[in-house]
């Protein structure tokens, strides 16, 4: 922070954007129009796996109001395959529409553009698709078998990646240990289901052979490169805008739909809008991988951890774009906050006939944390040690920071034992343990759950080299622009479009401190526009990266503008730069506050009276800056890599009560103590902690994409895919530690994924704790009242 | 086309008159058109958001004759003679209402997509229950999903607005 900073950073400033959102004045994708806009609808596969014999769309095309129809064969002829982010051995072409075969229920096979959505949907009913059903494979372990139905016969397997990575003497530790805890865990498919669904408007301009998109896609840098490549135009003729985004959580990135809209627009000669409906969203957009994990945890009799060996099967569904992503991120966080000298990770990334998996809040970490925190809890029970005590014996401690885990993650700072201790104190752990015993005697079932986690920020794409054997993208970086306008007001834009993180406010706070103005005088552009926003392939709203790359870009750009303002002021006042500071909207002489030049006056020099500039100084007050996180490195010779970059941490402590008659689980109390380094705006930070924790609770107790054996999704509406409501969750009580990161410009760390990582484990540990006297072991999620009721029946029988 | 005693076909247009935010509306509307689509696309009142189109998420909540209703589950032609209030009608010409101000002060939103529905549902609650406790607030908002906030700050905002007794009740 600059010396002139007025302390806006760190203030719980109410949000600028909230003033419009609370009045319904946000501008979301579906609020946008274009002249002569058409509306698209998608025809989707009713089969989990089938050969497409023929498609006849002539009756649909002949309908009044229908301007364009696109089949899979036409799409394949008019556009190239979608380039994968992680090109595994599964190098089979993946087009925006299915042409010869469908591989999950809901896969789009044709699309219609019409004058209104209802007409487009009517037209879908006139498209005849003849399918030849094929056997579907739904379970990932079944999909690994040699006789399994194959999604892609050309690959000869459904396994797109299998590898074993060993760091340290795992076998020796397993052999020498006093004991080894072996357990098998499973996690279901779920998703964060942003309340605004995915969508896009595409407009083809035949005059310039250019495409323009408006979309709530959260990763515009990557998406632009895919669109241009598939459409066969240079990136200079693809323009992409993001308006307000109604939540994203990783789910909002499916370039196939943007391509479909673009091809329809090109065919119809008019702009085309498509907004996903909720059933499409739940059936076909993006699910977190389900999977199974086998854990071996070697320990000494005193509870000291010696080695961890994990076998992990990730069910990707039909995901050819980002397979192995869940695996790699689990590997990067496998040790959680513990000192574990030796680690082995054997992974399978497996295709099945289900919705493509993809990024979802925490990607892989919720399951990794669930497995390790369940294992720690079971080990504590086995050893007769309090679960908090066992964790305290094994944490990486503050004096061991920075600490490198066996697979190469570097924990930069923090005090994990202090975080848990504070959570226990805030929760009144001792008091509730006593109350639990009293309640048990009275026939009530109370359970206390503890789970702790690390929370990384920023992804180093070099880690994909572990899978692909070559490096295509690497590091973590973001771009920002800061400009003092000719009137002295400040404008900022950022390559990362906010989807609810309050960037218009927190970025204004950062810039205000750098330039000695108030946040009111700083306007941060809403969303993204590839023609005016500086951006990189790496740009976007993902990977918790704001604190570790975006902040650096903003600070860097603002600092360079600041330096230029001071040089101009020094020249005009004929004084040394060192004798000046920026504050109260002006360059002010230290010790002589009456000698000052307002930003508007300096801007007049920079833009209008340019002969007044110092010799050699370029006119203008606009700086583009890119910040590259300094921790990212390539994969080393021992296959170690910092796949993620800066580590926050948290401790969750919760109390459940189980109704012994019905199996209903009520969350009575939930405490989170977290440490995300310096909090840039505590109001935003605390909101993130609340929301992410409730995501974790939903995954623990309610949410599941359930498929039957034929691959039909049974939970495709919010009537049966259940989200937590206000009545289902308690007030999340939040407290904090603040160990600034030594490697980010303002000391901040990630906080967006937050409670989604340890939340499922904390709730599961609490439910098991309530039922431990019945010998219950929670091995999978979600924990439903029906499951609890069965445990209670079995236990009492 | 006249429908007489028989039900209209989905694409048949019917003439209806009602008020939206105190302004009279008279339109010929397709029988199948939802109130949400009519408000958003025909009246450009885009503050009413559509999150699920099956009546669960509550983003499209509006007031019909002072009572909350899902505009995605109502057909616009059902509203003949009714009085509809949307988030635009609950927002003063200048500034924010006390309830909206409480939402802003408490940061009771993140992406803001659920917020108009939350404001409408909270307006109904405070009109009928001026001093709700936390359980009553949570119960009243249980029909409105928020994927961002975990509801903590929303509950705080409604409690704060109630405590300040500043929120004008909905007119009968």
| CATH architecture type of the largest domain in chain B | Roll
Question: Count the helices of chain A. How many?
Answer: 21
Mean pLDDT of chain B: 93
Specify the CATH architecture of the largest domain in chain A: 2-Layer Sandwich
Oligomeric form: heterodimer
- SSE-based structural type of chain B: alpha+beta
- What is the number of independent domains of chain B? 2
| Total count of helical runs of at least 4 residues of chain B | 6
| Rg over CA atoms of chain A | 27 Å
Per CATH, the class of the largest domain in chain A reads Alpha Beta
Unreliable residue stretches of chain B: none
**How would you characterize the largest beta sheet of chain B?**
5 strands, mixed
The CATH homologous superfamily of the largest domain in chain A is called: Aldehyde oxidase/xanthine dehydrogenase, molybdopterin binding domain
- Overall helicity of chain A: 25-40%
Quick rundown:
By secondary structure, chain A is an alpha+beta fold. In chain A, helix 11 (365-383) runs parallel beside helix 20, helix 16 (503-515) runs parallel beside helix 17 (546-573) and helix 19 crosses helix 20 (759-771). The termini of chain B are far apart.
Give descriptors for this structure.
heterodimer, A: 797 residues, alpha+beta, Aldehyde Oxidoreductase, domain 4, Aldehyde Oxidoreductase, domain 3, 3 domains, eight-stranded mixed β-sheet, five-stranded mixed β-sheet, 29 strands, globular, B: 172 residues, Ubiquitin-like (UB roll), DNA polymerase, domain 1, 6 helices
